[in-house]
Amino acid sequence: MALILVVDDDTDVAKTIELDLTQGGYQVITANSGYEALQSALHERPNLVLLDVAMPEMDGIEVCRRLRASPMTASIPILFLTVSKDIKTKIDGFNAGADDYLVKPFDLQELNLRVKALLRRGVAKPSETPPQLNVGTLHLNCRTF
Q1: Which domain holds residue 10?
Q2: What is the mean pLDDT of residues 114-127?
Q3: Are 50 and 79 in contact (CB under 8 A)?
């Protein structure tokens, strides 16, 4: 069963998405801030992140950049959910590393189809060990030890 992290500062939106995805057979965890999202992604290692762009303190674009910068979360697919139809916001999201982008309000059936497509691609295997760990001059090949 795929684990999906839903990140939205609007708790009603997060709960609606959580309920719908749970009924669709997914395991869902939620976060209501960028910082909480980063912690959840690192600790839970979800198969997919649904990420709101406009959040206080740390927006979704920055969260996406940080997820992509970490070897532990870099391969997790990210689907942006936002009210912004602005092309600049979309470009910023894709440049930060987003895999898909859906404008609110959206149809839950479309969201489900996009979730299935991203999971089907098999992009995320966050539970796998990274191929190599580097600490200073020490290099450890995780596939051969």
Answers
A1: 3-141
A2: 73
A3: yes
Q: What pLDDT, on a 0 to 100 scale, did the predictor assign at position 25?
A: 94
The answer to whether residues 64 and 78 touch, using CB atoms and an 8 Å cutoff, is yes
Contact call for residues 93 and 63 (beta carbons, < 8 A): no
Question: Of 57, 59, 75, whose CA–CA distance to 67 is shortest?
Answer: 75
DSSP three-state, residue 141: strand
- The number of folded domains in the chain is 1
* The two structure tokens encoding residue 90: 């979309």
**Whole-angstrom Cα distance, residue 43 to residue 65?**
17
Asked if 132 contacts 139 with a C-beta cutoff of 8 angstroms, the reply is: yes
Q: Which CATH number goes with the domain that contains 43?
A: 3.40.50.2300
- Whether 39 has a pLDDT exceeding 50, the answer reads yes
Structure tokens at 97: 């590393």
Report how far residue 50's alpha carbon sits from residue 53's, in angstroms, rounded to the nearest whole number: 10
* Phi, psi angle pair for 93, to nearest 5°: -65, -45
